[in-house]
Each structure stands twice: as C-alpha cells, then as structure tokens.
From TrEMBL:
It comes from the Bacteria. This is Acetoin utilization protein AcuC. Residues 22-317 form the Histone deacetylase domain. One of its GO terms (biological process) is epigenetic regulation of gene expression. The lineage of its organism: Bacteria, Bacillati, Actinomycetota, Actinomycetes, Micrococcales. It comes from Cellulomonas denverensis. It holds the Pfam family Hist_deacetyl.
Length: 393
C-alpha cells in the first residue's frame, strides 16, 4: 500500500466565503494550513498537497438535483437568491463565485476519495470539506454542495459495495444521512448534540434508515454539556462495534470541531484532546476494518483562532502518520502571524491539558446518567437491525 497521504489544499479554497460577520470564516482554514506548515507537517515527501478545480455539473448531480445546481449558478453569477432552495438566507447568503467555490470543495473530496480507492495514496484529508448539511435540492447550515455525499457516490460508481461515514461534528450529519437513507451500501453514523437543543433538530436514535436499509443510519444524540468523559464513552460505545459489524471497504469521516467547549455555536464542551483522541481512533479503525482506506473531512468549527487551527492540525498530523505530541508548544512564527492578522495572541500549546479519563461501556452503565441513557437509546434502536446485541459489548 502506498504510504503517501493527500492533503487537499490551494488558497483558492478560501473563496468559500459568506462574508464578514459569518461564523464560517475562511481564515480558519488559512490559519490551520499555516500552523501545519509551521510544524513541518506538509513538507514531508510522503505528503502530497493537491488543489482542486470546480466540479462539473454531472459530478455535482451525483448528489444534487440539476435544478438546484442551476439555482446555485444563478445565485453565484447574478446574485439572485432562492430562499426556497436555502440560497440567500441568513445561514447561506449569496456571494459572487459561490458555485465555483462550493464545487471546488466537492472536487477536493471526490478526487481524494478516488485516489485512496485506487491505492494511489493511503489516506486523504480535505479540511475544506465535510459540508454535511447540504441537501439534494437545498443549501443548509453553511453548506452549499455536499462533498461527502458526492465522494461516496463516486466510490459506489467505482465499484465500492460498502462505505461507512462517521460524523463527529457537534451537529447531526443530516444531509449525508438523507442522501443514503434508503441505500444499504452506505452506513452513516453521527454523534452529535441532540436536535432538541441544536440545529438542525434531527438525528434521533430511532432514525435507523429507510425500508431496505434498516440499521444503516446510526444516531447518537447527546445532551448539551456532555463533556470529554461522556463523549468519548459514547463514541466508544457505538462507533467501533457498528463499523466492525458493517465491514466497510472505505471510511469517510467528518471532523467538525464545533463540539469544543470554546465553540460559539454548539454546547458539547469537549477539549482539543478529546477530538484528537477520536481522530486517532477513527484512523485505527480504518486500518482495522478497511485496509486503511480513509478520507477525513473538516466540517464545522467557529472558534476560528483559538480552536480550529490546532484541532485540524492534529487531524492532519494523525492522518499523515506524524502525530503531534500534545505537549508541543505552538511555534512562535505562527503566533506572530496570528498577531499580524488578528492583532491578538492565540493559545501557545497544542493541548488543553485534558486528562481524558472515561469509562468504557463494558464497565457497565448508569440509567441515571443522561449520556448513558442516550447511548442506550441508540444501541436499543439500531443494534438489533445490524445483528448486534444492544445489551453487551
Ligand atoms: Zn494510517
Ligand atoms: Zn457543526
């Protein structure tokens, strides 16, 4: 197997920009790449940094209605919104070049998936991807085109028979789940803050996939303020078992880092360290269940200076087989760039210093704990459809 790892990046990807004041500031990506470079992660001979051209309509139409693609083009070139299709809304305002910018993200994920599938690279990372809320006919939640859904459809077209998608963004991965709701070839797993307290309001444990695909949608809906110990416990109680049972040939993961305690939008209260550990678990699982065929995507993350660059630098480090010791100091050269760009200091360490103490599910569960009730609801709802026992590990 190739040892090379693809990192999708070109500054043109910064054109995905809803404008000043919008939470999804492209500078979060710019700062991440600068930090990864300052740590030397992208300069290794095994790492290929590859850009992307905007995807053709026939590629976008793997996951989107032609009428929607046409509406995005109109919005993009003429500035005309289409609120019924989610375009020109508060979450997804129209901007010039919107179509090209969003279609470029799609190419990044699709080409990366195919490069992994064909064995040209071992893993791939597209931090600009993970647009998991985009629907077949509508933009939603800062997402215009669903790069993850297109990448998975491209893998299926190439002959893949079972693809798993695991989403650890704070929000439910509703667009990807919707794309494959009735498709037994694609397992979608989303660990998120409950729809009762957070956008998009979906992702209940009882949602387990459509007719003919029961058990291929897995939803873990956690209470707000779950924190590291509960979150790691929940991920560990569900994700490895369902992946081992489904036996995918390919893993796509979405690493939105808006579950961090400092994120202004969500409330799961995680540390940087918990996200880093989960990335390592997913990497390990990819090697265990699908010969390492792994595409890691970005996603949400709105603490643009204090969280996103460090969180996704850890993901890049993990995927390129050069994990960064959490005790590492953030390079002064990067901190100086942040001061120059933002006029303020960024955190100086690659850790939040979290202890990461958590209890495995096999040690028993406590029905008085909200997290344990959430995990139990998921296991009861979906494990039998996968042929797994909800009660025991
Ligand atoms: Zn690996
Ligand atoms: Zn999110």
């Amino acid at each position: 197997m190739s040892q090379r790892v693809r990192v999708v990046w070109t500054p043109e990807l910064l054109d995905y920009d809803f404008g000043p004041g919008h939470p999804m500031a492209p500078l979060r990506l710019d700062l991440t790449i600068r930090l990864a470079r300052a740590l030397g992660l992208l300069q290794h001979p095994d790492v290929e940094v590859v850009g992307a051209e905007p995807a053709a309509d026939r590629v976008l139409e793997l996951a989107h209605e032609p009428e929607y693609v046409a509406a995005v083009r109109r919005a993009s070139s003429e500035g005309i919104g289409d609120p019924a299709r989610g375009l020109g809304t508060e979450d997804d305002p129209v901007f010039p070049g919107m179509h090209e910018a969003a279609a470029r993200v799609v190419t990044g994920s699709r080409d990366a998936a195919l490069a992994v599938w064909r064995g040209e690279v071992a893993h791939a990372v597209n931090l600009t991807g993970g647009m998991h809320h985009a629907m077949p006919g509508a933009a939603s939640g800062f997402c215009v085109y669903n790069d993850a859904a297109v990448a998975i459809r491209a893998l299926l077209a190439e002959g893949a028979q079972r693809v798993a998608y695991v989403d650890i963004d704070a929000h439910h991965g509703d667009g990807v789940q919707a794309a494959f709701w009735d498709d037994p070839r694609v397992l979608t797993v989303s660990v998120h803050e409950s729809g009762r307290t957070l956008f998009p309001g979906t992702g209940d444990p009882v949602d387990i996939g459509g007719a003919g695909a029961h058990g291929t949608a897995v939803n873990v809906a956690l209470p707000s303020h779950t924190g590291d110990a509960g979150w790691l416990r929940a991920v560990d109680a569900v994700v490895p078992e369902v992946l081992r049972e489904f036996r995918p040939q390919f893993l796509v993961s979405q690493h939105g880092c808006d579950a961090h305690v400092e994120d202004p939008i969500a409330n799961l209260d995680l540390s940087l360290d918990a996200g880093r550990l989960a990335s390592a678990w997913l990497h390990q699982l990819a090697h265990e269940v699908c010969d390492g065929r792994w595409l890691a995507l970005g996603g949400g993350g709105y603490a643009v200076v204090d969280v996103v660059p460090r969180a996704w630098t850890h993901l890049l480090a993990e995927a390129t087989h050069r994990p960064v010791d959490p005790a590492t100091r953030v390079p002064r050269s990067w901190l100086d760039q942040v001061v120059a760009l933002y006029g303020r200091e960024a955190p100086g360490s690659m850790t939040d210093g979290a202890a990461l103490r958590w209890r495995p599910w096999s040690a028993g569960f406590d029905p008085d704990e909200a997290v344990d009730r959430a995990v139990t609801a998921t296991r009861r709802a979906v494990f039998p459809a996968l042929g797994l026992d909800p009660a025991v590990e």
